[in-house]
Amino acid sequence: MSVEKDIIKIQNKLQNMSDENADQSQALDLLKALKDLPITLDILTKTRVGMTVNSFRKSCKDEEVITFSKALIKNWKKLLSGDKSVPNEPKKDKKERKKSEEKEQKVDTKKDAPKPKPVVFPTPSTTDAVRIKCRDLLISSLKTEDEFGGCASIEELADELEDAIYSEFKNTDARYKNRIRSRYANLKDAKNPQLRSNFIAGAITPAQLAKMTAEEMASDEMKTLRNKLIKESIDDAQLATVQGTKTDLLKCGKCKKRNCTYNQIQTRSADEPMTTFVMCNECGNRWKFC
């Protein structure tokens, strides 16, 4: 606190000397007194003595005072730029303090040094020409123009998929090759991009894709169409096994004839109405009324 009080006293005297007609003969002594005080960055910030000296320098006409003021302000700027040394600190103390700071920085650097990452070994490679060719085939099925990153590289995914297929058959016979071709065709299918994106993103693992059936790999559109065809086949089979009733009240939408046969079958729950299946006896066209 005594240092701050001394600074404030000198500040007041300098401010009083800022007027043009004021006696500035003691200005140099006051500035030298400031230079001898152990001013720190905290004191410099609280008292704003730098602004006072700079303001006084602009109003002063004595060249020696102006030069001394500039040197004093320049010395204080070192505190603001990160040099926390006290003005007029002995050179020996400065060197010793610098050495200690360098040692501390080295210790901190060692503490903050990142730990070495564990070594990740790549997928086991193979020298089998057939397997290498199959891996290249799978890689080509995964590469697209709008390629995006996933949990692993395309090459790693293809290698793991081929390795999973080979692990199942233990050789490169026809079964192995057919499995590779089916994975290639489904991954390459432009109408089924979901399978490829799910595999690259990690939603489907290589081990899963290696054993998926054609139905499981199919696109949603293909699954819907397949279910529809299966249902129609079941309906046709049921219609063929049940003797129909001929009628001329129904008109075929295809040949426009009125020679039809219909059957009524309970395809839904018991409280729902029966489904009427109609077949045209002229052209074989089939349809149903729900």
What this model shows, in words?
The protein has helices spanning 2-16, 27-36, 41-47, 49-59, 63-80, 91-112, 129-142, 154-169, 174-188, 193-201, 206-211, 214-217, 220-241; strands at 245-247, 260-265, 275-280, 286-289. The protein is elongated. The protein is built from 13 helices and four strands. Helix content is 58%, strand content 7%. Strand 3 and strand 4 form a beta hairpin. The protein has a four-stranded antiparallel sheet, covered by helices on one side. By secondary structure, it is an alpha+beta fold.
Summary tags:
single chain; DNA-binding; 7% strand; 13 helices; 290 residues; alpha+beta; 4-stranded antiparallel sheet; nucleus; 4 strands; elongated; zinc ion binding; translation elongation factor activity; transcription regulation
